[in-house]
Amino acid sequence: MAPIAKEDLAELRRYLMRFALLHLRDRNRAEDAVQETLTAALERENGFSGGSAVRTWLTGILKHKIIDVFRRQRRELATSELADDDAEGRDPDALFDAAGAWQTPPASWGDPAKMLEQKRFMEALEKCNGALPERLAQVFTLREVTGLTTEEICAELGITPNNCNVMLYRARMGLRECLEKNWMSEGRPS
Amino acid sequence: MISCKEVSRLVSVSLDRPLALRERFWLRLHLWRCRSCGNFAEQMTAMRAAMRRLASGPD
């Protein structure tokens, strides 16, 4: 592998940190995961085929580090008081009436492309992702950020497909509700 | 006609696997008639794009 320029390494590290922080939601844990990733990369430099970008290769290593952290957390969560239903967030059924109609019908969020350019929306999203219950956030980020399939998530975290689908649904509903409160209700820019 | 609650679940499922023909039919029929659920479906898609943008950085 060709040596990486100092500024490229700094940029790579920033990217890996952002990726890890979005999943692990804790700066210390994210820094540890990134450090372990870079250490592992140096140890198995020969594993880099050159067929992909260095960033893609490092992200692949980091994904495994993140999953390792999730597995450890799940073992800890399973034996703690967090393992009750409260750890799964608010029941989305509360958003609907007895007939299954919306209690508060969703209003348009406007042009999705413009939304992504809004700093305040992205800040609210980051805040809301950080507020998701731990187990929901794990499944949600593995699906939405890392792009694992539900089958892969089930295998990695040892959960059933049905449980995985329920958790993804709850995470999405919880995140949406949080954005409604933290972004829409604060008078988003049009 | 399926309810908005069932539609919200189907929209979520559709982000994780292709829907069966029957599921797709009922979902499309409902979305055609219900603006609120149309907004909801757009929001779900936007949240996915935004999460990926968060990870890659404002690349």
State the oligomer: heterodimer
- Euclidean distance between termini CA atoms of chain A: 48 Å
CATH-level-4 superfamily name of the largest domain in chain A: Winged helix-like DNA-binding domain superfamily/Winged helix DNA-binding domain
The total beta strand count of chain B reads 0
**Total number of distinct structural domains of chain A:** 2
Shape of chain B: elongated
Order of helices and strands of chain A: HHHHHHHH
Question: What is the residue-mean pLDDT of chain B, rounded to a whole number?
Answer: 89
Unreliable stretches of chain A (pLDDT < 50, length at least 5) are 81-86
User: What is the percentage of strand-forming residues of chain A?
Assistant: under 5%
CATH topology of the largest domain in chain A: the name is: Arc Repressor Mutant, subunit A
Q: Level of helix content of chain A?
A: 55-70%
Shape of chain A: globular
The tally of helices of chain A reads 8
How many domains of chain B? The number is: 1
Spatial extent as radius of gyration of chain A: 19 Å
Strand content of chain B: under 5%
